[in-house]
Structure formats: C-alpha cells, structure tokens
C-alpha cells in the first residue's frame, strides 16, 4: 500500500486534538485577525499515527541494519539517552528561567564541557554551536577575533582539497579567501607545500584529522608548529574525533580550535538530518574570544558557564558575540553526557580502538577485490576508502551503491572525498559486531564482483527498495517544493488554495 | 561495555586477518609522544545504565520543571502541550536513527515527511516555498539577512528595535565578520510599535528590513505599511515570528507583504528543552528567490517506473557541492524537530490550530485583565496574542527571582533581555498558553501582589 | 534479510548490561549454587535493538493498517495511555506498599470501578481478573458461591452454540455441565427453547450480547426474567460491550454478572496476545460473593476498595476467595481510565455509535457480493458476519483471508462463529475513517470476486507476506517448542546443551 | 473527539448507504425502554489530552514511587533495573498493537519472539518445554495443580506452608469449585524449611507437591529430597519460583527433580506496576506432559517454500477448539510482558544474569549482616538469595507503617501476608536487589533503630 500525502487524506475541518471552539466576540489582536483560510489539513489521532508509522517503514535506520556511511558515523543510539533527555528537569525547563531554578541543567552543561576539555586537552569550550558547521564557523570566528584583537588583518584560510565542503564554505562565510592545500600521494597533507605557502596573509589552516581519506595526519604537530610560527592558527575539523577519542588529545598536537560533532562521537541521534550539536574546544590563545554562552575552567579547576551577565566576573569580556538565541542544544548535551558517563574514560578509549579495528578489518577483507588507493599508506583509522578502479567501463560507484540496497544495506558514502575517483568511504563504527561485518563483506563482495563483471542489472538497481531510482534531474529542473492541489473536477470543492501571494 | 559487541575473541581474530600484532599497531601513525597510554587520569570509568540514570535523575531534580510551577515565561520559547503520539513517532527507530536522506530510494519516509513539512510551513507563513528547516529562529534570521544581501546586492540591514535581542545579537555578531551594516533602532516601551521610526531608517542602500510579529513586547505591528516602504526602496521585508501558534489567529506575514519569513517553530511539537534543539523555519514568497535560499530543500519527482517520489534537490546551492561558493555553510537541518512539528501540526490541522490560538488568546486576555486590575501594575500593550508586557514600577529582575523562590515563574524581565538599555527595567514580559490554568493566573496575581506590597 | 534466532547469534559470554564480575568467595546460598551452564545467549545492546526491531517488522499491527478481526476489537491505542501508565507513581509502586503510600493508585482503581459500575448499571465490580476468560470464571464462581450460599446445588450452565469457546470452558472449569442453547434462524437465542430447558438444575445462562453474530439479543430482558424466575443467574459475556457502551446498560436488562475486556472496549493494547484485563461487574444479588480485592459503592455513594484487611468493615465477608496474587492489572487500569476520561460520557456513546455505523456501512457495502446470512435480521451491531456461500467450489474462507494479506490487510476473523459455514466476521471499530473503510471494501471486493470466480492463485496466497502459508500440521505432529542446537561439526564447540535432566 | 475519525459529513453519507434515517435506527433491536437517551447523567464529558494527563499525574503523585524511597519490598514482586531499550522495543507499534498471532504469515515477529521466549524460560527453569506465558505466577501455580490432577488422575495437592500465601489462597479458591483437596501445612519461623513435615503429608492420593524456591521466607529448600519422596508416591513435584533472577545463582528446579516449574517472571523486564500485568511462567520437564499443558504454545515449522517459520500449535488443547473439554479456559497470554522478559533476558545473557544474581546476593548479604548487628533484631535465615526474614521483637505491621512515613519502605510484615497466623507477627521480610544502594541499607538500619528504640 502506498502512503498518500497528508494533503491528500487530511481535511481542514478534521483535528486530532480536543480543544474548545472559540467563543467569538471581541479580541485584542489589533485588527490583525486572520480572515482567510490557511489550508492546513488535519487528521484524527489514529490516522496520524498510522500515516507516520507507514512513512517510517519507507526509511532505513541504524536500528534496522548496518549503515556504513563514511564520515557520518552511524552508530547505535542508546535508548537510555532518549529517556534521560525526556526527564522533566531537562525537557520541561525554559532557557530564560531564573538561574537558581536550573542549577541541574547548568551542571549538565558544565559536566559535559569538562569532559570535552579533558578529552581534547584544550582550555575552554563554546557550547552553543548548533551543529558541526556552526561549530566550524564559531572556531573560525574565534580565530578572526583573535587576529583582529592584535590588529592582524590576514585574508587567507588554507583548506585541503579533501576537506568536508563545510570547511571552505565556513571560511568564505567568515570573510576569508580559501586556498587549497595539496595532498601527498599517500593521502595526507603535503607538509612542505604547506610550509611554502604559509606567510603573513594566512589566518588559519583547517585540517581534518583523522582526515577524510580515513588516515591520521602524522605530521599534525609539525603542521601546527609551522602555522603557529607563521602567526596563524590551526583549526581542526573534529568530525572524525570518534576515531581517536581517548587515544590522543588534539590539544597535544597544537590544535587551536576544534568542533566536536556530538552526534558522531557521542551518539546523539541523527534523526534523518539533524539536529546536530557542535561544541568548539579552544586553546588558551583563542579561549578569550569564545562566544557567549561559554564554559571555562577556572584557576581552582572548577568549570563555569559564562553568559552576558557574568562575563566580567570571569574576565571573558572579549567574546566575539553570540551565535544563537539560547544555550545551545541542551537536549543533545544530556544525551551526549549520558553516553560519555556510560562509557567512562576506559570505554571511550575502547570506542576508538574498536572503531579503528572494525574499519581495518573491513579494509583488509575487501582490498583484494576493491581498489584501496591509500591501502599502502598504513592502517586506516575509523573508515576505509576505496575507488572504482577495476569496475567494468559502464558501471559506476553509484550503480554499486544502489546494488547494495538490493542486498538489504544502506550504501556507503559515495564520491567523497573528491580526491579519489568514484570514492567509496565505509565507516563501520564500534557498535557493529564481527558477524555483522562478515555478512556485509560477503554482500559487498558479491556486488563488487558484479560491478567488475559489468552486470547490467546493477545500472537499474535498486530493484527491491520502496522506490526505483529517482529522477533527481527532473526534481531540480522543475522544482516542486510544496504540495499544490490538483485542479478540481467540476462540482467538487477544492481545499483552500495555497496561501500567500 | 554494553554498546560494544566485539568480544576479545573477535578482536584477536580480526587482528589476525589484518595482520597487526595488537590494536595499538593500528594507531602507529599517531606520534608516540602524543599517544595516551591508558584512560585519561582523573575521569571516571564506565558505569551501568542504572548508575548513569540515577546520576542524571539527580541532576534533573535540581531544576524546577515548568509543570511544577505557575509558569509564564515566553520571550521566544513557549510552553505548549505536545500530544504523546508526537513523541512516540519521533522515537520510531526508522526516523530517529536514519541519516540525511542522500539515498532517496530507502529514505522516502523522511523525504515525504519533509515535503509535507515544507508545505505546512509555507501555508502557515503564507509563502510560496519553505525549506526543510534550519538550526533555530535566530540563525534563520541571520540567514535571511544574508540572503537579502545576495538578492539585492546591498549590505545594509535595518532591524526593528522590537526584534528579539538575542536574534539581533546573532545578526550583529555575524555582520561584524561579513562587514554588513546593521541599523538597529532602540526599543521604547510604547503601547504600539514604532513603525514610523523604522520606516525612516530605510534608504536606497538597505537590503532588508527585519520586523518581529508579534514583536518582543507581544505587540502586533501592521506589516503592510512597512512592506510598502521597504519595497519602494528596493529592500526586502523579513518578518520574524517566534510563536507559530499565533498564526492560527492572525494573518500570515506572507499575506501582508513579507518577502522572507523566518521564525522559531519550537512551539509546535518540540517543547522547551532549556533552549535546544529548536527548529528554524525559513520561507520565501517569491519563487524566483528559491535558488538563493539557504538550507535543504526536498522536491517531488518520479522514479524509474514513474512512481511519485521525493528527493533532496537544488543542492547546487549547498556546501557539499559548491564549497566556498555555497549560499550557506549549513549542513544539517533540524530534521527530528521538523518531524515533531509536522506530526503535531497534522494532529492540529487548521481547525485545531485556530482553536489552539484562540484558547491561548482567551487565557492571555484573562491574565491581562486580572493583572491590569492590580495596584501598581499596568499593561503596556494595546494589542497582543498570548504574551504582553506589564510595568510593575520597580526593577523586574529582582521581582522575578523572588517569585521563583515562591514557585512562580512569572515571566521574563526586560532587564534580563536588554541588560544595557535604559527605561526598560520595570518591564515584565508575561506569556500565557493553553497550559496555563486560570488558577495559575490567580497564583501569579496574588503572589505578585504579595511581593509588590 | 532474514532475522536469525537469538540462539543462533547470541553467545553466553556476551552481555548487553554492565554489571560487576562476581567477587567469588563464600555465599549464603545454602549449597544450592548453580554449577552447570544455563545456555542463555546474550547480545550487546545494539544487536538486541536491531534483532527485535527487525522482528517487529515481520508483524502487522493496528498502527500499520486496518485490522478487521471480528470479536477482537482492534482499535487505535492512544499513546497518552502508554505515557500515563509509565508515570512513576503507577509504574514504580509495589502492590504490598503500605496503603498510605499508594492512595493515588487506589483512587485509579476506584475511579475506574466507578465508571464501570455506572456504564453498566450494576452494583459492584471485582477488579482483579487478569483477562476476559479469567473474568468469566470469576463471574461463574460468584454465581456458584451465591447458589451454594442458599444451599442450591444446581449442575448445569446453558451456553449458546455461537458463544466464545471460553464460555463452555469456563463453566466446565467451574465444575458445571455445559448444555447448548439453540439459535433461531435469524441468529439470536431461541427464547422459547430456552424457557423450555430452564428448571431447578440450571445454575446460569451465559449469553454474549451483542452476540457473536454481531446482533443484539432483543429478548435479553425476557431471557433474564425467565432465568431469574427459574432461580438461575444470567451471565453476560461482555466481550462486545464496545458496541453498546453509553447506549444501554446491561444492568437494565437483568444481567447478574458481566466481564469487561478492557483491551476491547477501553483500548488497552493487545500486545500480540496480552496482557488482558477482565473486571467483572455484579448485580446486587451476586455482589456479596465477589472475590477480594473488590470494589463496592457504599451507601453514601463513595466507592471503596475492599481487601482481606477491611472485608468485615464493608460487610464483604462472603467473598468466594481470591483469583490472583495482587490487585489485578493495574497497568491496564491506568490506561483504561485514561481512555475513559478522554472520551467522557458523551464520547463513549459516540464510540458505540461510530462502531455500529462503521460495521453497518461495511455490511451494506459488501452484502451484494458476500452472503450475509443474518443480513435480513436487522442492523448489525459492531461487526458484520458473512459466509462462504457463493465461493467457487474449491476456494475457502481461509483462501480469501490469505488473499487479503496480499492486498496489505490483516484478515478478518475466520470460521467463527461456528454456526455459519465458512464464517467471516468483520469488525471495523470506531477508530477507522470512512476512507479507510472504502479502501478496504474495494480490496475485499476484488478478492471476493476472485473467490467467486475460482481464481486458483488464492489457494497459495499469501504471495507477498514475510512467509508463504505455514505448515501447521507439521508443527503439531512433530512439535518443536524450544530451540535445540544443531549437531556441531567436529571440532566446533557447541553452546551448552538444552537445560534439564 | 481526537480518536474518532468520522466527520458529520461522513456519518450522513454512510447512513445514506445503509439506508437508515439516523444512527439510532441502527440500535432498533435494543428495547426502547432500555435505550439511554443521552450521556449518562453525572459522569464527566470528554476532555483534552492535556486535561487528562494533568489529572492522572495528580493521582500518580499521590503515590510514593519506589525510586523516591529506601526500598526493601519483595514477597513475590521485585524491583529491578529494566534497561531503557526494553521499554523502547515493547512500544514499537508492530508489537504493541498486534493481535494474537493467528495469521502467522504476518505475525512472525511475535511468533519468533515467543519461540525464543519459550526457549529462554525452558533453559532458565531447567525444563524441556515452556509455554508462551500465563497471567501471573499465582494463576500459573493453580494451572499447574490442575494439570497435575489431569496427569495423575488424583485430586489431592500438598502445599508447602512456605508457599506465598496469595498463591495458596488462589489454589484453595479454585479447588473449592473443582472439589480438589488441598493439604496445606502451617508456616513456622524456622531457619530451615520443614521438608520432613511436608514429605510426611504425601500419600498415594497425592497428585502433586507444591514447593516454593526460594520460599516465602527467602529460604532455599533442597528440592531433591522432596522430588524423590513425591515421585515415590506417584505425585508430581511442582516448584514455584517468584524471583527468576535467583536462578542465575542457584540450580534450576528442573535439574533438581521438578516435574512442573511455574513462577512469576515480573523481575525480568516487567517492573512493579502495583501488581500487574505480570508474567506467569510455566514449564515441564517431561515431554510427554506437553499435551496436558495449559496456555499457548508456539512451535517451529516451514512455509510452502520450505522456509523456517513459527506458528501457534497444539491448539487442540485450547478452549477455542475444544470448548468445555479444553485443558484450561485461558485465552490470552501475557504477550507484551513476555516480550519485555525476553528482551531483558537477551540483554543479560547468561553472563549478565549470573552477574546480576550475584550482585543481588552480595548486597543482600551486606544488608543481613548489617541488620543482624542491631540490638533487638535477628536474622532468621540460614540460607537466602536476595530476600530474608528478620524478627524485630514486636508487631512488624505497625513498624512498617511508621517507617513508611519516614520514607523507608522497609519490607513486608508477615502479619500482613498471614493475617490469621500465630507466631509470625514480629517477622519482617526484607528484599534487596541491585537497585538497593549501600546507603539505602544504612538508611533502613538507622531508621529502624530509631523506631525500635
């Protein structure tokens, strides 16, 4: 049974709530009363539950199976975290309640901040960024604020070509010119080329470590030293922190700012595209410029939340501003802290080790059949990268990915990083069992054999999914972005026309 | 470790396949001097689910939950009743644990939901197209200002003084770096919004005018006049709404001339959550502006068999394709909150939304009338929806704290929202929703009377 | 992907909880220490969630679609009810806590009891029966206790042949001989035949009203009067109370005892087969004999919970005993009360009306194509009954039902009641929309046309379900009721043998 | 009405199809004088979700939740930590809103789960076959007695005095009607169970001997001796267990000679819930007895394509087929509780169950040692698992109530369990689980000391 659109089954006079009919009479709306219909369809509660339950069954999630999206870190989402986030003292408190009535919530922020600082070996943390990209922006703005504070108007940010798209977009958004850093043939930043480019115009270098080829940047400390010597700052994209949490602290490698994707490393749910949460840890040099609200460790070792009200008290008056209306993603903080406390310092180290072990196991279980361009570069970290080398002429990475869908799997990340042709980036995470990996390897090997043999049926895969291949070109060429009522057959009433002009 | 399936036997077998002597060999690229040798000193070790739950419950109980107080706080986040079925649906593993729908063939659930969500938001805002959501209202507000700059190729934004101060602060913070100019009026405690003052600041260099509706004091500006003035100078009108429930009672910004409508969607389905995650809404009235929009868009298409389906589209605007030329660096949306919003809005439907809005307004009128009768208290607003400003003749920050000790969360003092402004200190913003009982209103009035006397 | 058995993927040394290793050393187990392995496989939490999520997707539930099982009343289960049942004051209290610490829980029992008494027009209610059949037993035992109290050793219980199988089983369990009551050609109890059978040996008549043919027993009052005149009692099977709640009170028709299936009328979830909950309302004549715990309305109109401790105080010393260890299905009481308060007196009446309206709409939308043996007997109540009359020779009701599965529906109740050949009993309930009914009618009509035309493919349906037809004969002939390890290939360790001697 | 999808328009259209003038015409068969004309007088009308939730929350808050007290109550229902994922899974709509799996092709989820559940219970009990669950432990106990009657064709059951008194009461209630004879020993406060006394009551007419393990005082009887004595007289040994966690530490009844093992499964996955719904477990050691078992059974089979699948089987024992000749009138099982049990048991696994059992025992030993040190208090038991009996030298009922006022739920007084028995009034049953902290134990000891002094 296909599930129709809400707009095809709902009616504007149906409702799934029981509220009183408005009494009418005078009001205080200042003459702005709505007179036109809005056109919002409603459903009774049974119909609503069924509509969304059915829709959900058109989705694939980590609860259903292995979800090997490289760089996205699809790991198990513990249900304890969901339960904790719903405790009334967290879910049912307002961000503007008097501080004395939210002491426990602030303790959550502080406890989490404390862990993030300790795990990264940094000095302070800006908790408010709403997602990874927002955190990047926060970090780059800290760097710009620090440079401006010393009257240094540098204009360039260096970004490796293999970086996440958010890196250059962020630097540009913050008003910088973006220049590429080349990579070595083994998939790492070219230290010599980088050094050659450094100079008084370079504000910062943005490095992803472990990088998007799944490799650890061996020269990280040397890079940091060189950048610092040239008067710039080092931004580290922390999207892949899950590979090294508890094993190495970015602060020890000279990083000045790094965002942490709580949904990746600390398993807050992705929810079909968000919400994320991207706290940014900062070095001593950048900490004074962190935006409000901000969390800092004071001299006595305690951790304090700093807002506009108490910025002076904590000597945090150089904050570059505010990135969002309230305190940040509190609902994600409770989940992340719950996850961290569950694992503890020992468990988090095990997380990194098992994630890396799983990735290397996949790499070595597949590299006889799939080309691993950086296979000889040493062990991978949390993800394994392959190219489409060896596929039959007319079979693409996309075809292989869609073929995997027919095997019951979500595909890996495709065509990223851009430095590898037809890239396939596979990240197993630490929450997959060996049995699950073995089953996946066998499925992927079978599809890869077909790709090498030029099996034409791959080109029309998937065959067994809720939909066959969707026409993305049509969607972009003639965008239909909102429901519009079909022209009504004569005599039939139509639902109110789409609102607006 | 309950979340880690590998056994020690598994680990040994896997290391053998890899050809590594131990797991540390896999970290060979990490410089030895940086490698941590054991768990970080001073941090606690792993704990059972029961122990962690107990710890978190203890922290939770240190907060005064809204349900346990007489509650009147708003100012950009509102407490509404969220039906239990909403929370049930967002916890379905297929929604909760899915990724961004980059593989549309196995993500039609998320995609159809987003398409429905976009349609709901567009209709609610009286707009042509809405995106698939952003971080929150304040960041959506800045994205709108930035988009107006791209559309008009001008760099001066005029902000109403009655815009939420945190929103204004976010805009100003970002503008510092993009070197946009921000003209921001001062807020004065007047019964009506200062439309004339706002209009007088619009000039030929103005990319956009940003007006909140209802505004931070709860007042309802007539947007038509501002729209006309802005359009005359070639500027866009950006309307900010922080209380979507209001739009069940008042005419939508799109119908009144807004070009971009942004806002906070938290009221519908999401809950308070101490400030996040919330739900940024973003919509435009002019189809031509679609390609300048930030954020994800979901569009309709067909599959190879001609069946209707949905995909993320127009991604050439986005960072993962355009990199430094993207319309925004935004990468995630607020998908799960968008789902909650969409489910709640489906349960409401137009009928329920209108009933909900009028019930909010009815109770707010009762509260305003009750407070206006008190000695030493006056109601500022001539118009309001479910939130209004009272003046209490003394510094409201102190009064709010005193009331909190008595279990009454009385509202937000203007002194907290505008710490640097003059003449606002005796203002108190009072929000009333369907969750407020008439008994709560009486508790507020009598406790306030006690404190003020 | 097929989901393996837990026993095929779990390991006895894997666990999804974090508990300390036992320290060893002396204990107080009195020498009963376990030495042998148990053989219980464990999974980590991610694997557990995935195992059961995948299993769940092999199931059909009311959340997924229309579930027209006649007599089973598959209606929407509001999520508010689930939320309320989990409030700590209900979920986390022990049945043996001091009474002063569970006043709220007792109020729930009392409030619900009050509603049940008012809605049925009865005198008291025994809340503890754990399910409908347990309630039946409770009712019959009350009757037997009442008869014994007056020294009356009657031996026979009369049951209509269309009754639920639980009715005769219950009467037999309570020590009675069971005799059939015949039905008239229009599907109701034959009043004259009943009267003729009544006599000093008849302890009770068990009537289902509305009956299992979906009809209201018009002569209910006359039946009751006749039974009472003959010195017997009237037991009413309340499984179908949902059809008449708020429209007529069984007490007004002379019923002495009736159980109420909370999961049917008041929408507590069926949960794949339970738990149920079957409070029994009692007439003034039977009330003194209701088992403990018991709820009674006192002279001042208040409602009181009576237990062993206070039986004397409430003059309830003739209680026939105790049916279960504790107070009954508290978790179902909170859900049922939540449901009742949501609907209110007006809404419950609407529930009955909409349920009956939906059933008659189905009856009249199908009776041109499907034989409705009691169609001429007047409106049906909450369910519509059809027979296999008109099907091609070799197509059975079972085939039609399995064909419906391929259309995306759960089949209706088959081969019940026994009085109709190839019976199909369809109960839509009040929580289905007209659109959902129309869609179902169209699907059922298409399958029915195929059944009439003798479409052979129906005989092998379902074709599109997780499983094709299952061999029930094999299951019963060679019962495999617990997992047994396959014989291990040589050299491989086996999991511990199945426990036991 | 939020749960009723029909609109008034729908209703009119449907009545037209039916050919009825109004809905009351559909109730024509109800005698007019019995028909209610409007909503029943004096009862409240429908209410919003918010209003109902508030009402129920108010009632909930009138109870002292175990988490808010120092908690030591057991006596047949035990407070254990249930992992959050258990509750998540049982709320999946596909499990929660499914019916009894009579259509196996679309109910493999429930059926495979039941097959796994049966296998888990059988292994835990050391039995050959377990059924798919029953109402609770007490009703399962009576079903076992009834089954023993069918198997042995005898009608005399011997009950241990240390059987849970509510269980004994249920058995006696039912036996009154089936005219079985029940021989029930009196309970005496001895450090060891009175096996000899029990054995002396077994005779040739005895169908079964019913023994609880651990028993109501927490003691651990050696079952082998009783099994031998029963079998010698041709009687079956029925062992009742009310704390399945114990079986992670002690040898299973099946291994010790039980013929039927029944019990309460609530400890694993289900929670306290003020007494229900709970989970009756029922298993037999002898395959030949399977067809005399009550309740549902799920069995393995194959489908038309030869794939493994599961069905309800041996239903010729059941009421819907056999009617008055059925082995029981039972119709429902406790399916959702069985699911919760099975999920929790899967999370535990053998390793976790053993750890859990030993952690319970460790804490119980600490509590017993602490209490034994108190003046005026003595510990009765020589052996126990996680529950033991203390004597406090005065009527424990009163003491328990006094302690409750101080936030300590100290246990169950034997006077409450055995209101008519002599010599038990100073006995107090104290249960300790992994949810009990050492701090709780200290609180119990110090508060008890205060009350007793």
From TrEMBL, chains A, C:
<keyword id="KW-0663">Pyridoxal phosphate</keyword>
<keyword id="KW-0560">Oxidoreductase</keyword>
<dbReference type="InterPro" id="IPR015422">
    <property type="entry name" value="PyrdxlP-dep_Trfase_small"/>
</dbReference>
<dbReference type="InterPro" id="IPR020581">
    <property type="entry name" value="GDC_P"/>
</dbReference>
<dbReference type="InterPro" id="IPR015424">
    <property type="entry name" value="PyrdxlP-dep_Trfase"/>
</dbReference>
<dbReference type="InterPro" id="IPR015421">
    <property type="entry name" value="PyrdxlP-dep_Trfase_major"/>
</dbReference>
<feature type="region of interest" description="Disordered">
    <location>
        <begin position="481"/>
        <end position="501"/>
    </location>
</feature>
<dbReference type="Pfam" id="PF21478">
    <property type="entry name" value="GcvP2_C"/>
</dbReference>
<comment type="function">
    <text>The glycine cleavage system catalyzes the degradation of glycine. The P protein binds the alpha-amino group of glycine through its pyridoxal phosphate cofactor; CO(2) is released and the remaining methylamine moiety is then transferred to the lipoamide cofactor of the H protein.</text>
</comment>
<dbReference type="InterPro" id="IPR000192">
    <property type="entry name" value="Aminotrans_V_dom"/>
</dbReference>
<feature type="domain" description="Aminotransferase class V">
    <location>
        <begin position="157"/>
        <end position="271"/>
    </location>
</feature>
<feature type="compositionally biased region" description="Polar residues">
    <location>
        <begin position="491"/>
        <end position="501"/>
    </location>
</feature>
<dbReference type="Pfam" id="PF00266">
    <property type="entry name" value="Aminotran_5"/>
</dbReference>
<feature type="domain" description="Glycine dehydrogenase C-terminal">
    <location>
        <begin position="353"/>
        <end position="452"/>
    </location>
</feature>
<dbReference type="InterPro" id="IPR049316">
    <property type="entry name" value="GDC-P_C"/>
</dbReference>
<dbReference type="GO" id="GO:0004375">
    <property type="term" value="F:glycine dehydrogenase (decarboxylating) activity"/>
</dbReference>
<protein>
    <recommendedName>
        <fullName>glycine dehydrogenase (aminomethyl-transferring)</fullName>
        <ecNumber>1.4.4.2</ecNumber>
    </recommendedName>
</protein>
From TrEMBL, chains B, D:
<dbReference type="GO" id="GO:0004375">
    <property type="term" value="F:glycine dehydrogenase (decarboxylating) activity"/>
</dbReference>
<protein>
    <recommendedName>
        <fullName>Probable glycine dehydrogenase (decarboxylating) subunit 1</fullName>
        <ecNumber>1.4.4.2</ecNumber>
    </recommendedName>
</protein>
<comment type="similarity">
    <text>Belongs to the GcvP family. N-terminal subunit subfamily.</text>
</comment>
<dbReference type="InterPro" id="IPR015421">
    <property type="entry name" value="PyrdxlP-dep_Trfase_major"/>
</dbReference>
<feature type="domain" description="Glycine cleavage system P-protein N-terminal">
    <location>
        <begin position="1"/>
        <end position="447"/>
    </location>
</feature>
<comment type="subunit">
    <text>The glycine cleavage system is composed of four proteins: P, T, L and H. In this organism, the P 'protein' is a heterodimer of two subunits.</text>
</comment>
<dbReference type="InterPro" id="IPR020581">
    <property type="entry name" value="GDC_P"/>
</dbReference>
<dbReference type="Pfam" id="PF02347">
    <property type="entry name" value="GDC-P"/>
</dbReference>
<dbReference type="InterPro" id="IPR049315">
    <property type="entry name" value="GDC-P_N"/>
</dbReference>
<dbReference type="InterPro" id="IPR023010">
    <property type="entry name" value="GcvPA"/>
</dbReference>
<dbReference type="InterPro" id="IPR015422">
    <property type="entry name" value="PyrdxlP-dep_Trfase_small"/>
</dbReference>
<dbReference type="InterPro" id="IPR015424">
    <property type="entry name" value="PyrdxlP-dep_Trfase"/>
</dbReference>
<comment type="function">
    <text>The glycine cleavage system catalyzes the degradation of glycine. The P protein binds the alpha-amino group of glycine through its pyridoxal phosphate cofactor; CO(2) is released and the remaining methylamine moiety is then transferred to the lipoamide cofactor of the H protein.</text>
</comment>
<keyword id="KW-0560">Oxidoreductase</keyword>
